[in-house]
Write a sequence for this structure.
């Protein structure tokens, strides 16, 4: 097969390894004496709900629930209602879904079981502003965070402290029912409290950290949200408004399990490489930083392999995952994987025998219609023939347009899972 097809086959293997139908059966909880209520949020949550429903061994007449996913990510379920909302900036549909989910889990007893299905994207899909804030406040803050260059851990710390449902607050509403949270990780280090802002797990972060993040990135609006964070620091309210910590009684009857992770997906891709005669090297599943800077580092490793056969001999595939960021300064189109690819192409400068695919495993890179992009030794030459300057497109954060014009986008549509970025550099 050609290089692009081979790269895509590794991506497909990574995505397949994280599919709910394959992973959920091993994590089904015991059937309760009362009702089973399934809730959830995220890009993979609808598919998780369908898989749970298909494999659930309890009475279906006692099974119900409500799950919110991204627009176009809904699937058919018989007993669990699926609704759609906006991502990455929340909308009224997500706010309404969050309210309904809180209502759904209210007034349950110790006899009941709540299964919460959480995956990446849940932070914006499960958007319920804290008292005194509006959806418009949350939307404005979300846009500012997305443009700031803040990493996912920092963004979700702020989101938790502006929310009535994130950062463990959903677990407070579920108590005293038994709570089982099944998670598909899309974050570096697989921290459950970071995935979708941890609505059902203890939150180790604080209002003070949230304010420090706002100040670090120079975010000054909306004032209503910033003032809310500042009020959380005052001695007479902090105990009332801080997110629940590990010693909170609401966590006494809870379990959280990771059913799919970036590392497991990278291992699946590595097997494909090995089966085709390429030595796989997983550089890391939690690589963070500015997309263009990460590209510079990985380009340096690639050159070391080509020139010095270190840290691995060719033919090989360098695999990595994690979540890079983009500090937006231009007004172009493109997600972090497209930005990575354009910066990598510029640094490699047509290096012979090197091909790359960087893509988001959920099928959407940022807010465009592509999962990611391909880089080949001919990328810059094709661009030059089309009158395109890699430097100009990078400066305008317009990597999507660059790769669209040279026909090197990867478009898959929704994958119904999400274990974050996938990068494969093929060195022949």
């Amino acid at each position: 097969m050609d290089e692009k097809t081979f790269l895509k086959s590794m991506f497909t293997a990574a995505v397949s390894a994280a599919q709910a139908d394959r992973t959920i059966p091993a994590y089904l909880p015991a059937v309760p004496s009362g009702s089973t209520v399934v809730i959830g949020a995220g890009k993979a949550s609808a598919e998780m709900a369908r898989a749970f429903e298909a494999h659930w061994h309890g009475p279906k007449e006692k099974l119900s629930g409500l799950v919110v996913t991204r627009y176009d990510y809904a699937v058919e379920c018989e007993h669990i209602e699926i609704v759609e909302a906006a991502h990455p900036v929340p909308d009224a549909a997500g706010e309404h879904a969050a309210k309904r989910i809180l209502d759904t889990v209210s007034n349950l007893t110790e006899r009941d079981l709540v299964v919460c299905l959480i995956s990446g994207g849940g932070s914006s899909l499960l958007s319920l502003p804290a008292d005194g804030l509006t959806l418009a406040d949350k939307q404005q803050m979300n846009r500012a965070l997305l443009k700031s260059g803040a990493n996912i851990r920092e963004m979700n710390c702020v989101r938790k402290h502006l929310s009535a449902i994130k950062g463990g607050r959903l677990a407070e509403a579920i108590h005293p029912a038994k709570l089982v949270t099944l998670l598909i990780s899309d974050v570096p280090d697989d921290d459950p409290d970071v995935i979708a802002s941890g609505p059902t797990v203890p939150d180790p972060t604080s209002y003070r950290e949230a304010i420090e993040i706002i100040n670090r990135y120079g975010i000054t609006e909306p004032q209503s949200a910033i003032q809310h964070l500042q009020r959380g620091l005052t001695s007479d309210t902090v105990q009332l408004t801080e997110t629940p910590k590990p010693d909170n009684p609401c966590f006494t009857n809870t379990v959280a399990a990771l059913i799919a992770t970036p590392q497991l997906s990278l291992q699946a891709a590595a097997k494909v490489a090995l089966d085709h005669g390429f030595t796989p090297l997983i550089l890391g599943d939690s690589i963070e930083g500015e997309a263009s800077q990460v590209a510079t580092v990985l380009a340096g490793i690639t050159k070391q392999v080509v020139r010095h056969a270190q840290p691995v001999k060719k033919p090989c595939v360098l695999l990595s995952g994690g979540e890079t960021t983009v500090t937006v300064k231009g007004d172009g189109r493109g997600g972090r994987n497209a930005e990575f690819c354009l910066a990598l192409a510029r640094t490699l400068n047509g290096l012979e025998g090197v091909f790359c695919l960087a893509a988001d495993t959920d099928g959407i890179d940022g807010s465009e219609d592509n999962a990611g992009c391909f880089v080949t030794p001919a990328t810059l030459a094709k661009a030059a023939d089309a009158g395109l300057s890699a430097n100009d497109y990078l400066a305008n954060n317009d990597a999507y347009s660059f790769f669209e014009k040279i026909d090197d986008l990867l478009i898959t549509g929704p994958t119904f899972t999400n274990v974050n970025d996938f990068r494969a550099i093929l060195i022949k």
